[in-house]
Amino acid sequence: xxxxxxxxxxxxxxxxxxxxxxxxxxxxxxxxxxxxxxxxxxxxxxxxxxxxxxxxxxxxxxxxxxxxxxxxxxxxxxxxxxxxxxxxxxxxxxxxxxxxxxxxxxxxxxxxxxxxxxxxxxxxxxxxxxxxxx
Length: 134
Prior knowledge:
Elements: E1 3-5, H1 7-18, E2 34-45, E3 53-61, E4 65-70, E5 79-86, E6 91-103, E7 109-120
Parallel strand pairs: 1-5
Antiparallel strand pairs: 2-3, 2-5, 3-4, 4-7, 5-6, 6-7
């Protein structure tokens, strides 16, 4: 149920999140984004509610945000968790918030997200922190 990242994919994702691409085209964003193609799982979160996981595709990432391709729309301000597992071991739970969502076809939505926080998830068993549910 969690995305397994190879060593190369982990380094790619970490470099995207840590640095900006100086050769990238100018964008209408605070931080430039790099194109990425990676399948992930996300789980919406809200206090007192339980949501099923859903498969999404990560299509771009920056230091502070990311772009996802989702089969269902996500509401602006909605929070969700993406569990990341690394091929060499360990992982993170990443808290995200929807900034915008628009239909790109009858069955897919492009979702812009803000990366809010992360916690270490060494065994893949870490629960979502209670303060993320507010």
